[in-house]
Every structure is written in structure tokens, then in C-alpha cells.
């Protein structure tokens, strides 16, 4: 009987080995979604900051859709909806992992938009004016002054987003992508030892998240400009 | 030299500058006085185009630009002939003192790195901050920050350095040191236009003093005339309210 069985530590170890086979897929989806999300976030933030008509409204719709619907539903929408569109253009079906990458990119893009925007807004107008006053062009001010300071503010926020994205990729099991959680499920089913295999996969996620957090903390320390702290920003609302 | 004619600027329907004329000879020191809201800071920001004037003609060095139809390129070229010292220092948080001073030289003026470095150090030395060259702004006191701010503006070797209340954010005991540096720059023949409330400094170091009120220059002349024998009632009233006047009048 299932409920009479003892907890099997050796199964945890074996499950961990199986789970690690899914690690590349998990990391792939996370990395693609994070980088694509940064690009999306950057452009959406620009559209909002510079108040570009039409684009700005489109961004608002996109952001509220992603924030207002469950990630799992978004994943299903992409997985079942996108093939319908692709079929019309005569494209063959794509591998599931690609749908996962697209869905997670759109998801993280929405959240990273806020990160990029708030970090850039936190750079004081005084910093921009100072850059202009020494003769820099707009682009030079962005490159030399605004982005480095915004990045410093953004690091902890980026870390949070990266960990929640990393954990979120576990939902890809719902569209049969063989990432870590899927592997844990399948392996757990094979021995009817779900507790052991989910414990194994949870430990792997935990380890990864701790690594990300440590990395961000280290980066944050390195990026502090002097002992006075990371982002001593003045007045809010610098627009560039 | 700097010559601005009929500079006008409105924010919404509030007219902040109503056709201001100002000119400063090469190597001269001009002090702008006036009550708050008189438009003196806006005038200064118009002179280096942090604010774009609605109209007027601005000449800096050899370049003359009509503000009503200036292109972005012309504005940038004109601005690059100026240096600016901010009331709140405006040092780049993400750079050391040296990097702050050097940035405009390497990136805007495209000087070779070694030359920019040498000049930046020289300017830091001039304001007594060379030993803090590698400190970040967060590690400096207000007075030190403002010295770096002055070095940053001076290093550009601009036609004119514009200063917006350079000492008013400082602790009283730090004001003297910064004013000392400004006197030094004046003696070196750097053209400066300074908005300040330091009347004693104006009396001592200025070649001309302008008094602004309600978006216009209402009094103008050498300091002894403007500060001691002002013609207008508004200027007299202003001076009576300044605690330092006794000292300034005694010079």
C-alpha cells in the first residue's frame, strides 16, 4: 500500500540524478525568457517613458494582460493559440520548448518593463542635466550616466525576477516540455514515489535560486559607488 | 565673451524672462542678484540651454544663434562652449571625482585619454581635491563635491562658466573655501556668470553686478554702483533685507 511505504532517501538521490537531466531545458527556457524579457522590457519602458503614442497604449494592454492572467493560462494560450496562427501561414508545428520560451519571454518582458522603467526613472534629473552640461549628447548621457546608475538600482529587482522566472518554468510541464519538474513527475510515477522525487526537484530549484541571489548580492556590492551606498539618487523623474 | 539679447522664456502662461539682455566680457566676472522667483536661475539655464529660450539671440565666443530657429546641432555646439556649476553639485554618482572631471573631456571634446587625464588632475589640484581624485561623490562632503563640480566645469575650458548659487547648499564654514576658489578663477581670467546671494563676494570679485526682478534686469553696473548707490527702489529694498549689507557697504 502506498501510504505504508517508508520515505526512501536513496530514491531522492536517484530522482535528483533524473531531474538534473532536465536542468539544461530549465536553464534554456529561463535564459531565453530572461534575455528576451530584458529586450522587451527595455523597448516597452522606452515607449512609456517617452510617451510614444499608440505604442504606449499597446504596451499598457500587454502589461495588464500579462499581469492580470495566470501564467499557466498564458502558457496554454501560446501553446494552443499560436499553432492556429502558424497553421494559416503554413508553418509546421514547433517543438513545445519553443512555445514555452515564447510564453515565458512575454511573461518576463512585462515584469521587466517595470524594472527597467522604475530603475531609469530613479536616476535623478540632476544627473541628466549634469551630463548635458559637460557637453554630452543625449545618447552619451544615457550610456555613461543613466544606464550605469539604473543598472545598479535594477540588480536586486532583476535577481527577484530571475528567481521567480526560474521557478515559473516548472509550469512548462503542463505543455509536456521535459524540464526538471516534468522529469520529477515522470520519475516519481515510475516508482510511485512522488514525495521523494518532488523533494529532489525542490532541492535543485532551491540551490539554483540561492546561487542567483548570491550572485546578485555580489554584483550589487561590486556596483556600489563608494561606501555611501548603491544608488544615492536625488530627485525622481528624470526623463531622457 | 557672452552676449545675450532679448532672451524670453515662459513656462506655460507664466512669463519668467521678459526679454533679458546680458553681456559679459572675456575674463570678467558677472554676479546676478535678485529675489527668488526673479528668473535668475532660469536665465542661467537658458544661457547654457538646459532650458531652451522661446526667443532671443545668444552669442558665445564666435558663435551667434537665434533661439527661435536654432537646430539641435547648433544648441549642442553652443552649450559645449559653456560649463555649469550646480547648486546641488550634480556630480555623477557612478564616477569618481577624477572620472567626473574627465568625462566631458574624453566623451564630448574627444581629447586623447592621457591629455584628458592630465588636465582633469590639474583642475582637481587647482581646487585642492587631487588627493581625493579616486573618491566617489558619496564619500565627499558638500564643500568637496562643489570643488569637484567647479573643477569639472573649469576643465572644459569653456568660454564661460555659469554658476547657479554655488555656495547656497553648503555649510557656512565651507562657503569661504569655495568662494576662495572662485576668486582664484576670476584672477586667472576665466569668464564667469554667477548667481549668488554672497554680496561680499560680489562686491569684491565682480566686474559687474546685475539685479533681476520679475523676469527682467532692473539694475546693472559695477558693484560699487549697484550695491552702494542703487537707483531703483526695488534694489534698495532688496539690499536692506540682506544681512550682509553692512559688510558689503563697508568695502
Number of helical runs of chain B?
A: 10
- How are helices and strands ordered from N to C of chain A? HHHHHHHHH
CATH topology term of the domain at 24-173 in chain A:
MetI-like fold
Largest protein interface, residues of each chain: A-B, 26 and 29 residues
Oligomer: heterodimer
What is the CATH class of the domain at 24-173 in chain A?
Mainly Alpha
CATH superfamily of the domain at 1-81 and 161-166 and 192-251 in chain B: P-loop containing nucleotide triphosphate hydrolases
Mean pLDDT of chain B: 91
Radius of gyration of chain A: 22 Å
Description:
- The complex is a heterodimer of chains A (240) and B (251).
- Helices cover 75% and strands 0% of the residues of chain A.
- Chain A is mainly α and 240 residues long.
- In chain A, helix 1 packs across helix 8 (180-191), helix 2 crosses helix 5 and helix 2 (23-49) runs antiparallel to helix 7 (138-168).
- Chain A is flat.
- In chain A, 37% of the residues are buried.
- Chain B has 251 residues and is α/β, with parallel strands linked by helices.
- Chain B has a domain at 1-81 and 161-166 and 192-251: 3-Layer(aba) Sandwich (Rossmann fold).
- Chain B has 10 helices and 10 strands.
- Chain B has helices at residues 40-47, 72-79, 97-108, 113-126, 142-155, 172-187, 199-205, 223-228, 233-241, 245-249; strands at residues 2-11, 14-24, 29-33, 55-60, 63-66, 82-85, 160-164, 192-195, 208-213, 216-221.
- The longest helix of chain B has 16 residues, at 172-187.
- Chain B starts with a strand and ends with a helix.
- Chain A binds chain B through residues 126-127, 129-137, 140, 144-145, 148-149, 152, 225-229, 231-234, and chain B through 48, 50, 76, 79-80, 82-84, 86, 88, 90-95, 103-104, 107-109, 135-139, 152-153, 156.
Amino acid at each position: 500500500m502506498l501510504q505504508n511505504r517508508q520515505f526512501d532517501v536513496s530514491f531522492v538521490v536517484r530522482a535528483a540524478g533524473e531531474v538534473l537531466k532536465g536542468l539544461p531545458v530549465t536553464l534554456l527556457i529561463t535564459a531565453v525568457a530572461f534575455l528576451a524579457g530584458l529586450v522587451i522590457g527595455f523597448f516597452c519602458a522606452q515607449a512609456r517613458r517617452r510617451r510614444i503614442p499608440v505604442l504606449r497604449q499597446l504596451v499598457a494592454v500587454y502589461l495588464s494582460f500579462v499581469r492580470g492572467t495566470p501564467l499557466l493560462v498564458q502558457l496554454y494560450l501560446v501553446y494552443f493559440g499560436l499553432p492556429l496562427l502558424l497553421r494559416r501561414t503554413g508553418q509546421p508545428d514547433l517543438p513545445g520548448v519553443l512555445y514555452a520560451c515564447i510564453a515565458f519571454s512575454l511573461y518576463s518582458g512585462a515584469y521587466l518593463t517595470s524594472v527597467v522603467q522604475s530603475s531609469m526613472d530613479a536616476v535623478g534629473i540632476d544627473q541628466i542635466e549634469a551630463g548635458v552640461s559637460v557637453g554630452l549628447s543625449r545618447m552619451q548621457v544615457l550610456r555613461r550616466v543613466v544606464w550605469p546608475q539604473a543598472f545598479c538600482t535594477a540588480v536586486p529587482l532583476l535577481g527577484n525576477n530571475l528567481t521567480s522566472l526560474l521557478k515559473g518554468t516548472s509550469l512548462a510541464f503542463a505543455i509536456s516540455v521535459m524540464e526538471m519538474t516534468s522529469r520529477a513527475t515522470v520519475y516519481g510515477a515510475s516508482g510511485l514515489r512522488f514525495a521523494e522525487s518532488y523533494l529532489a526537484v525542490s532541492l535543485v530549484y532551491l540551490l539554483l535560486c540561492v546561487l542567483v541571489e548570491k550572485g546578485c548580492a555580489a554584483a550589487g556590492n561590486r556596483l556600489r559607488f563608494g561606501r555611501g551606498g548603491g544608488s544615492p539618487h536625488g530627485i525622481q523623474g528624470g526623463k531622457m | 565673451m557672452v552676449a545675450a539679447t532679448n532672451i524670453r522664456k515662459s513656462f506655460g502662461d507664466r512669463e519668467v524672462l521678459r526679454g533679458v539682455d546680458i553681456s559679459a566680457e572675456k575674463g570678467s566676472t558677472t554676479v546676478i542678484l535678485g529675489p527668488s522667483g526673479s528668473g535668475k536661475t532660469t536665465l542661467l539655464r537658458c544661457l547654457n540651454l538646459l532650458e531652451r529660450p522661446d526667443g532671443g539671440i545668444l552669442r558665445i565666443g564666435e558663435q551667434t544663434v537665434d533661439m527661435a530657429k536654432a537646430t539641435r546641432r547648433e544648441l549642442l555646439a553652443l552649450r559645449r562652449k559653456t560649463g555649469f556649476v550646480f547648486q546641488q553639485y550634480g556630480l555623477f554618482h557612478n564616477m569618481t571625482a577624477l572620472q567626473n572631471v574627465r568625462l566631458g573631456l574624453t566623451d564630448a571634446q574627444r581629447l586623447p585619454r592621457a591629455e584628458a587625464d592630465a588636465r582633469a588632475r590639474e583642475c582637481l589640484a587647482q581646487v585642492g581635491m587631487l588627493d581625493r581624485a579616486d573618491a566617489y561623490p558619496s564619500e565627499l562632503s558638500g564643500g568637496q563635491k562643489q570643488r569637484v563640480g567647479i573643477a569639472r566645469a573649469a576643465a572644459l575650458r569653456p568660454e564661460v562658466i555659469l554658476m547657479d548659487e554655488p555656495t547656497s547648499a553648503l555649510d557656512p564654514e565651507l562657503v569661504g573655501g569655495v568662494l576662495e576658489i572662485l576668486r582664484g578663477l576670476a584672477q586667472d581670467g576665466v569668464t564667469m556668470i554667477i548667481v549668488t546671494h554672497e554680496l561680499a563676494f560680489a562686491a569684491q570679485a565682480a566686474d559687474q553686478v546685475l539685479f533681476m526682478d520679475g523676469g527682467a534686469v532692473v539694475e546693472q553696473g559695477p558693484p560699487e554702483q549697484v550695491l552702494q548707490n542703487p537707483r531703483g527702489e526695488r534694489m534698495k529694498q532688496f539690499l536692506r533685507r540682506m544681512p550682509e549689507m553692512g559688510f558689503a557697504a563697508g568695502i
